[in-house]
Design a protein that fits this description.
By secondary structure, this protein is an alpha/beta fold. Helices cover about 35% and strands about 25% of the residues. The chain binds cytidine-5'-triphosphate.
Length: about 400
Amino acid sequence: MTAFYQDKNVLLAVTGGVAAYKAAELTRLLIKAGANVKVVMTDAAQEFLPAKTLAVLSTHPVLTDASWQGPSSAVDHVHLAKWADLIVLAPLTANTLAKLASGLADNVLTATVMASAARKIAVPAMNDVMWSNPAVQRNVNQLKIDGYDFIGPASGFLAEGYEAKGRMVEPTEIVTSIADLHSDDFQNAVFEEKPLAGKKVVITAGGTREPIDPVRYLTNKSSGKMGYALAEAARAAGATVTLVAATSRQVSPAIQVILVGDTREMLAAVRKEMATADVYIGAAAVSDFRVAEVADHKVKKHGDEHMMLDLVQNPDILKTVGEAKKPGQVVVGFAAETENLVENAQAKLVKKHADLIVANNVLEEGAGFNKDTNKVTLVTADQEPIQVAAKLKTEVAEDIIALVADLLTS
Ligand code: CTP
């Protein structure tokens, strides 16, 4: 754990709940674990804990509305927002949670958090009824979609004098949970050298949805996990990442996500992004067919007649990108197979003008749709196929990105 915090810049954002007094211990523990800690506080937080206490413990001036000199100051909020590798909001009140969920920046704390691309960890603390209020839960969901991680609240003895869920998680547990949550993102021993620095990578993810009528569509079982894992791995390797996704999942704020619905929409987004990209990775499960004529109104049944859907072939996104490949670009596709894995992957490599095909036998244990693990064979034109043992999709993603980095330089 100590290794995780070593030389990390942690910005502790303290808002006005009674648990604010625990920010003192949290500051101390983070520093003890090896982090550089700076603090930003709201006015309400200072009613519970003087800024001076945290200034002394963190050995840095605390940014408050009163000390905020505006953008020209040496300790301004943009400077602090950039400095932070990690922002820990503890305690986070329902009020600030709501502001962040709707993008309000009306004090120095919200302005700093909003101006930062760092990973954000919310540690809420509030009354139990307030926590289960639908408006609060809506805001929590919104922040989760926006990429915030949540620790707690915990169940226990509340300031109100009874046992319920709403307590801020104890500082010791916060420090360990953050390290557990984020060790993968920050470790990346494989990418110490940042082999994709300065490169732009476009990745597709999820299962496309082909409309039948305004309320129905055809799709597949893809969860998008592999594509999202690749996006995180490419980001960790230093790339600028654009994810064209047909399935929405949580992702680092540094990754640009373009949400799409059907195959033609995905193709249009990919084409546009590829004009400035170095790498394309087609991890999406693209529907090979779409409904020839999408009904304007909900299709009704009248009796017990058979329903026939007339399907036409969709464009092949990978093939389109492969054919338009510019010198120096690397194009990667996937091949979901049920037999003759390597032969079929080699055929797809040629047919789609790809540099690498990541092949998996979807019938095999530990591989395929909607799982956390994958077992793949990496097929390129010049090397012997590389069989990768079954492992987490996040780890498979790192192997693929490492090979992509090799292909870019070869
Ligand atoms: N792919 C694509 N556009 C399509 C179909 C597939 O870009 N219309 C891409 C997928 O994203 C994947 C690769 O092609 O990277 C292989 O997909 P797969 O379904 O295995 O192959 P198909 O080309 O559809 O061939 P088949 O279904 O006949 O095996």
